[in-house]
Amino acid sequence: MSSSIASSSSSSSSSSKKEKKISLKTSDGEVFEVEEPVAMQLEIVRSFFADNEDVTEQTVMPLPNVSTAAMHGILEYCRAHEEFRRRMPEAAPEEEVRAFEAGYVDRKSNEELKEMILAANYLNISKLLDFLTGVAAKRIENKSVEYVRAFFGVENDFTPEEEANLRREYEWAFEGVDED
Amino acid sequence: MVGEATKLRNEDLNLCFEKLMMLGVGFGGKTGGVKMEGVVITEWKDIPMELLLRIVSQVDDRTVIMASGVCSGWRDAICLGLTHLSLSWCKKHMNELVLSLAPKFTKLQTLVLRQDKPQLEDNAVEAIANSCHDLQDLDLSKSFKLSDRSLYALAHGCPNLTKLNISGCTSFSDRGLAYLTSFCRKLKIFNLCGCVKAATDSALQAIGRNCNQLQSLNLGWCENVGDVGVMSLAYGCPDLISLDLCGCVCITDDSVIALANRCPHLRSLGLYYCRNITDRAMYSLTQSRVKNKPGMWESMKGRYDEEGLRSLNISQCTALTPPAVQALCDTFPALHTCSGRHSLVMSGCLNLTSVHCACAVQAHRTASSIPHPAH
């Protein structure tokens, strides 16, 4: 932290107060130039730079498990949170955060949600992962098996016998609950 | 030389990148055909177990059961990963559901089967005992259809139980209970409230002999409990923190004196309706404080926060007199009679109305020394 403050003050003397950027390359080869504090929310990036002192600003870090689309979503979230943090370093403006997160997730399809969960897991952004898995949980809560299978595009691979057993369990469990 | 170093550094970096790739390949269980483009997991059914469990841990138990029936991958992940389950919401078919689920959810550590209307039968508890050997916390409260067969099964199948609630299971006998305690010796929190037939002195002697780690025991309304049983507990369970003897009408001062002398960590004691209790019991508790805490006054003061009675119910103990109870109240500053905290409960003791905690005096002082903030 202290070193980044020092570098920013020295660069401000040379008039161009440019923010340090980190280059991240997604699975489909696109390179994102990401502001350092935003990129550092990605634990995998943070530990990579912490463990390898030799890497320079020119280093492009490959992220083979993250698609360009997922990266856009991830950065949108991380940038918003960096902005919240910058404005209110003490305590995040909870209502604003909630409003942002609600709008943010409304725009995501199940496919996008899945990709982002996988990406957030790989990039090790625990806050985002908690949030996204919570969203997925809400989307399947109190739904029928058929609904969830269709929703996530999962195929039923049980034998008819297994399926019959599950159906009974499921009927016992869902007695008196409305189906969608 | 410089060029050499740079080359080396680049090699290190390449190695790091390769490691990143490896991480990617291992992830999701899909291999093959992976270079720079990485692995793209295309199906929800392939999402890694830990992620599925992270989602499932945030849904209700009904949905967990549903999710385990989505596909075999999800089922296997949930069966392996699920450690907590409650079926208390189940109004009709809890027994069938337990029979069906217990053999699958073998990693359960906590299982809550509390019922409003008794549904569970012995075969369900046997299924649990046969499959869920890691179980640590089991709530069977209000299962009054269960017989000693359930206790025998748990004794053999679930030796790691540390928390067991069988309150309201009125059919258990004291022999069954004694048998259980000789196997489940790690019990720390045990609720026997209303187990009139099971909680006899001989069962309590077995608990005192076997369950030396016991910290909390609820014997509410077990009217067969007598001094012999409570004294066995006091001698066998030195770690007791909380003991509820509400409605144990037979016990006398001897029980309380034994607890005061042998259980230095006792923080909560319920004596509601124990009408044989007299001032002797109160003075023994007061003295235990002095005995257990020798040394400088300063060091005692520091320990007041953690040790000593914090909760005492002496409602309907009509033989008690104000000096004995006031002395107790003064000795344990965490005992309050004031409405906000109310940790010394004396309802029905009409001759104790003069007993007060220190708060009344303090509140008066505070009110006169601090000006009203609103003006």
CATH topology of the largest domain in chain B: Leucine-rich repeat, LRR (right-handed beta-alpha superhelix)
Number of self-contained structural domains of chain B: 2
State the separation between the terminal residues of chain A, measured CA to CA: 51 Å
How large is the share of residues in beta strands of chain B?
5-15%
Helix content of chain A: 55-70%
H/I helix tally of chain A = 9
CATH class of the largest domain in chain B: Alpha Beta
Tell me the total number of β-strands of chain A: 3
Q: What is the strand arrangement across the widest sheet of chain A?
A: 2-1-3
Count every helix of chain B, treating DSSP H or I runs of 4 or more residues as helices: 15
Estimated structural class of chain A? mainly alpha
- The residue fraction in helices of chain B comes out at 40-55%
User: Per CATH, what is the topology of the largest domain in chain A?
Assistant: Potassium Channel Kv1.1, Chain A
Arithmetic mean pLDDT of chain A: 84
Quickly describe the structure.
Chain A is mainly alpha-helical. Chain A is built from nine helices and three strands.
List the helices and strands and how they pair.
The complex is a heterodimer of chains A (180) and B (375).
Chain A: H1 2-13, E1 21-25, E2 31-35, H2 36-39, H3 43-51, E3 60-62, H4 68-87, H5 94-106, H6 110-123, H7 126-140, H8 145-152, H9 160-173
Parallel strand pairs in A: 1-3
Antiparallel strand pairs in A: 1-2
Chain B: H1 2-26, H2 49-56, H3 61-67, H4 72-81, E1 84-86, H5 94-101, E2 110-112, H6 122-131, E3 137-139, H7 148-157, E4 163-165, H8 174-183, E5 189-191, H9 201-210, E6 216-218, H10 227-236, E7 242-244, H11 253-262, E8 268-270, H12 279-292, H13 297-304, E9 311-313, H14 322-331, E10 344-345, H15 359-369
Parallel strand pairs in B: 1-2, 2-3, 3-4, 4-5, 5-6, 6-7, 7-8, 8-9, 9-10
Search tags:
heterodimer; A: 180 residues; mainly alpha; Potassium Channel Kv1.1, Chain A; 3-stranded mixed β-sheet; elongated; B: 375 residues; alpha/beta; Leucine-rich repeat, LRR (right-handed beta-alpha superhelix); 2 domains; 10-stranded parallel β-sheet; 15 helices; 10 strands; globular
